[in-house]
Write a structure and sequence with these properties.
Elements lengths: L1 H4 L5 H10 L4 H15 L8 E2 L1 H4 L3 H4 L4 H8 L9 E2 H10 L6 H12 L9 H12 L9 H15 L9 H9 L4 H4 L5
Antiparallel strand pairs: 1-2
Helix pairs in contact: 3-7, 6-8, 8-11
Length: 188
C-alpha cells in the first residue's frame, strides 16, 4: 500500500479531473502513477514528460500514429510533443471506452490531419495510408495504386467535392463505421 499511496492525487483534484474527463477516479490515479513512472519521479502539475518517454508506453509503442498522437494532445509551446499530466489525461480520456463518437472522431481527424490545416487532403491521405500499410517495400503501394486509393477515399468522403475531407465529412463517414468507437482506444 505504501508504494501506490504516494501516487494518489488529492481528492478535490481527483474529483475535478473526473468531471472533466471520461475517466473514473481509479483510472485517473492509475494514469498519475504511470505518468510519474515515465517521469522517473513524483511530478508537479506543470511538469512535462518528453515525447520520447511517452512513446515507451506499451500501449503506444506499436501504434503507427504514436508521434501524431503526442503532437495532437501536447499543449507545449515548443511543439515538441511533450505532455503535461493534464495533456496525458486528455489523451487517455479521448481514447477511453466512455468517450463519445463525436470526441473520438474529432481527435482521429486531428491525428490524421498531418499538416494541421483543418482538412484531409491528398498529402494527409497519402501519409495516413503509409502509416497504416507500413512504408516497407513489400507493403508500399505503387504510385498508381495510391492515386486510385486516394481518389476512392475522396469520392466516398468528400461530400462538397472540394478535393478535401473536412471534419463534418469525416464524422459522417465515421458514423457509418460501427467498429470505430471500439477500436479507437488506449487502455493503461
Amino acid at each position: 500500500m505504501g508504494g501506490t499511496a504516494s501516487h494518489n492525487l488529492p481528492k478535490e483534484l481527483l474529483s475535478e479531473y473526473q468531471e472533466l474527463t471520461f475517466l473514473t477516479k481509479q483510472e485517473i490515479n492509475e494514469a498519475h502513477k504511470k505518468f510519474c513512472q515515465l517521469q522517473g519521479r513524483e511530478t508537479g502539475p506543470n511538469e512535462r514528460v518528453s515525447m520520447q518517454n511517452i512513446l515507451t508506453l506499451p500501449e503506444l509503442k506499436s501504434n503507427p500514429f504514436r508521434e501524431r498522437i503526442c503532437h495532437v494532445f501536447s499543449t507545449s509551446d515548443r511543439k515538441d510533443g511533450s505532455l503535461s499530466f493534464e495533456d496525458f489525461l486528455d489523451l487517455l480520456s479521448a481514447f477511453s471506452d466512455s468517450a463519445t463518437l463525436e470526441i473520438k472522431s474529432h481527435y482521429a481527424f486531428r491525428i490524421f490531419d498531418f499538416d494541421d490545416d483543418g482538412t484531409l487532403d491528398g498529402g494527409d491521405l497519402r501519409k495516413l495510408v503509409n502509416c497504416l500499410t507500413g512504408e516497407t517495400d513489400d507493403a508500399c503501394l505503387t504510385p498508381e495504386e495510391m492515386r486510385q486509393l486516394i481518389g476512392n477515399i475522396l469520392e466516398e468522403s468528400d461530400i462538397d467535392k472540394d478535393g478535401t475531407v473536412n471534419l463534418s465529412e469525416f464524422q459522417h463517414v465515421i458514423s457509418r463505421s460501427p467498429d470505430f468507437v471500439s477500436s479507437f482506444k488506449i487502455v493503461l
